[in-house]
Design goal:
By secondary structure, the protein is an alpha+beta fold. It contains 14 helices and ten strands. Helices cover about 40% and strands about 5% of the residues. A four-stranded antiparallel sheet has the order 2-1-5-6, with no helix packed on it. The chain has a two-stranded antiparallel ribbon with strand order 3-4. A two-stranded antiparallel ribbon has the order 7-8. It is globular.
Length: about 425
């Protein structure tokens, strides 16, 4: 096997200038509900530990490599990983017990408090919060920010130094807020790596940069065309960054709700009419789950998606996008603090048809408590199978017997 290092086009390079594996874009990660999670090919600054940049693997030798994927939705039982090879695909099934979710928990229940990523807030003696009040940045930090901004705008400074300056502003974090307008300009420039670094820097600054990130996202979404994959990738990058910001990105919720209605047939009113990748809606929904699953408008959107439950566990290609959105909506409900009564019936219908992830559906119905008594027959059909523990836990909660449901979906008696 040989991974070509010869091509220099930016479409095959990470932000740090290292080539991604030539076949990495064909690697596929799916959960048992059929949701697909995109591989993360571009890295800001240094590449992840263990990343293999390409080269020859001699017979009898082994290598270790790292592939990064988007975080899975709540409630999965297993993940299927497909890695392409010239003589055929290599496929692996990964049980939930082998997966560490954000917050250090294993299995199919994500930590609600995790934002899905890490974000440096302040580096080098910057802002400190004491008693809820924000202090001014350290004078040395302020001076360094001014120097970095000057480097970016100075025509005599080389491109590489400008990129380094953008990256450093991102590591400073929220203290670099006065650089937001400048970083927004760079994020809409012609240089691919400069754009990506500037977007990450804006996300690192935090809540005050959200309006600019939203403005750039809306601009990209209004110009999407089916033949412009670069714009689509840039838009998805912003959505992933907003997702990783967690509650700091609440200002992006109205726009993300609009994006969540995208399908392969085109976008909603106010955005471009060209066909786009059908997983745009899924990407936005997973972001909303991390930002604020309890937001009133997010729950309203969830009710719309839940209202038409799937009829089969094996959707056709035409049904796949809506099927995935239904499960994404279940993930939002699972992460929220309340469960609207209106979702009990459609979840029960999907469960009775075996058209949904059983542990997730039963955990949600158990969350509804005695109000979900209509779901008892659907749950009972799982008592003698592999999901017996989840079924027993849900039935106890519905019948009003106090038990705590474990993060992985199981239950225990009181």
């Amino acid at each position: 096997m040989y991974r070509d290092r010869g091509r220099e086009d930016e479409g095959r390079r990470g932000i740090n200038g290292k080539l991604r594996p030539a076949d990495a874009d064909d690697a596929i990660l799916k959960d048992d509900a059929g949701n697909t999670y995109p591989i993360q090919l571009y890295y800001v600054g240094a590449s992840p530990d263990g990343f293999f940049g390409g080269g020859t693997v001699d017979p009898g030798k082994t290598i270790h490599d790292v592939l990064l994927f988007e975080s899975p939705l709540n409630g999965f039982e297993y993940l299927d990983l497909k890695l392409p090879y010239k003589t055929g695909d290599m496929q692996f099934r990964i049980d939930k017990s082998m997966v560490k979710m954000p917050g250090g928990k294993s299995g199919g229940k994500a930590d609600k408090s995790a934002s899905g990523g890490t974000r440096p807030v302040s580096v080098g003696g910057g802002t400190e919060r004491k008693g809820g009040k924000e202090t001014k940045p350290d004078p040395e930090v302020s001076k360094r920010i001014d120097e970095l901004m000057e480097m970016i705008t100075n025509a005599d400074v080389g491109v590489d130094k400008k990129k380094h300056a953008v990256h450093e502003l991102g590591t400073i974090g929220e203290d670099a807020r006065k650089a937001i307008p400048l970083l927004a300009q760079v994020a809409q420039g012609n240089d691919y790596f400069g754009r990506a670094l500037a977007l990450q820097a804006l996300a690192n600054i935090g809540e005050e940069a959200v309006p600019e990130l939203v403005k750039i996202l809306r601009s990209l979404m209004s110009q999407l065309q089916s033949n412009n994959t670069q714009r689509q990738e840039n838009a998805k990058t912003i959505i992933h960054l907003l997702k990783n910001m967690g509650k700091d990105a609440e200002g992006a919720i109205p726009t993300l709700l609009q994006v969540s209605s995208f399908s392969s047939r085109g976008g909603p009113r106010g955005f471009g009419s060209g066909a786009v990748s059908s997983d745009f809606g899924m990407t936005a929904l997973t972001a909303l789950q991390e930002i604020n699953p309890n937001h009133e408008d997010v729950l309203k959107r969830t009710l719309v998606l839940i209202s038409s439950p799937p009829t089969t566990r094996f959707p056709t290609a035409a049904q796949a996008a809506e099927y995935s959105k239904f499960h994404a909506a279940l993930g939002i409900l699972d992460a929220s603090d309340t469960l609207p009564d209106k979702v009990i019936k459609p979840i029960t219908q999907a469960l009775s048809r075996n058209a949904v992830n059983p542990p997730l559906a039963m955990r949600l119905l158990g969350k509804a408590g005695p109000k979900a008594r209509e779901a008892v027959p659907a749950i009972r059909q799982y008592l003698n199978g592999e999901h017996q523990r989840e079924a027993e836990a849900a039935l106890k909660l519905i019948n009003g017997i106090g038990v705590k449901v474990a993060a992985g979906g199981g239950g225990g008696g009181e």
